[in-house]
Amino acid sequence: MIHLTLFLAFAKIGLFSFGGGYAILAMIQQEVVLRYNWLSPSQFADVVAISQMTPGPIAINAATFIGYRQAGVTGSLVATLGVIFPSLLLMLVITLSYLRLRRLAWFQNIFAKLRWLSLGLIGAAMILISRGAFTDWFSVAVFVVCLAVYWRWRSNPLYILLGAAVVGIILG
Amino acid sequence: MRKSLPAIFLTFFKIGAFTIGGAYAMLPLIKREVVEKRQWITDLEFRDGLAAAQSCPGPIAINISVYIGLHLARGWGMLAAVLGTVLPSTITILAIAALFDRYAELAVVRKAFHALKPAVVALIAVPLIQMARQANLGWSNAWVPVVAMFLVGVTGVSPIWLILAMILFAVLQSLWQQRRQS
């Protein structure tokens, strides 16, 4: 039963995630934290941090992690299959018909409008992760320093995270 | 021309294993491996596939793997490419998930994550600000992301309803404009 729930929840996440990357986070959070309580907001922030330091798309990482915690290795496989299932089906259709669809005004307009929306969804993901992230002044200080460093030098996110982890271990 | 499935699988496995930080880190590497180094598809085909992958729901890295795999060896090529992209991520996360509960309460791990979480917020904030600047937002449309951010982030409305409403709005708007023009 939990396997079916995992598959359906992650298929839903795959189906309603537009724009990739951070825009998917709001959708994952909606299902995993708010609806099924598989993770607390703080644990969700942990998973996002882990995803940023490991290979692969964030939705796949989240599916594997949560699937494993809910139902072991089979759970992780089912959740991962769920999240890629809509991609497999829809990309098949789109690959075969996209060049024709792309000329239609209403089809283009959908993606122009969804782009506005995905900005809001990324913002929402940021708010939701902040709830688990900002627990004291130390975390606010880490945020400000990382923001400044990333803004100024556009360093590889991996280095920023490794730096933050080291600072946390020494000073936290 | 059909390509061998092990070659497709290994190429995408390599791409999946060496890209940290999601699809936007992955795309240049996919292009280098598949278009420039192996010349499996042309630059134009890659750009068409990228546009399709960004339009389709789901992780962009998976979508582009489906497209390229289909191009190279139809259905089996698609499966080989997707499996290659997903496996490095699945193996790594399985290992971490198996260890996570045992080590999550260690002081050193807790301290590291205490600082990692606000760092992740910063990593999201910077591209968000950049995207907002590039999106040509004005008074007529800037309310859309602001309202969406509030509804989803604060009141907990599901993104699904906003996405469906936005699709409906976009289609109706286009139809209305077409009618007015004709």
List the helices and strands and how they pair.
The complex is a heterodimer of chains A (172) and B (182).
Chain A: H1 2-15, H2 22-35, H3 41-53, H4 58-101, H5 105-133, H6 137-153, H7 157-171
Chain B: H1 5-18, H2 23-37, H3 43-55, H4 60-103, H5 107-134, H6 143-153, H7 159-181
Short description:
The complex is a heterodimer of chains A (172) and B (182). Chain A is mainly α.
Describe this structure in words.
The complex is a heterodimer of chains A (172) and B (182). Chain A contains seven helices and no strands. Chain A has one domain (2-133). Chain A is globular. In chain A, helix 1 (2-15) packs antiparallel against helix 2 and helix 1 (2-15) crosses helix 4. Chain A has 172 residues and is mainly α. Chain B has 182 residues and is an all-alpha fold. Chain B contains seven helices and no strands. The longest helix of chain B has 44 residues, at 60-103. The termini of chain B are far apart. Classes of the chains: A mainly alpha (172), B mainly alpha (182). The interface between A and B is large, with 104 and 94 residues.
Order of helices and strands of chain A: HHHHHHH
**Uncertain runs of chain A:** none
Shape designation of chain B? flat
Q: Name the structural class of chain B.
A: mainly alpha
Q: Structurally, how many domains make up the residues of chain A?
A: 1
Summarize the amount of helix of chain A as a percent range: over 70%
According to DSSP, the number of beta strands of chain A is: 0
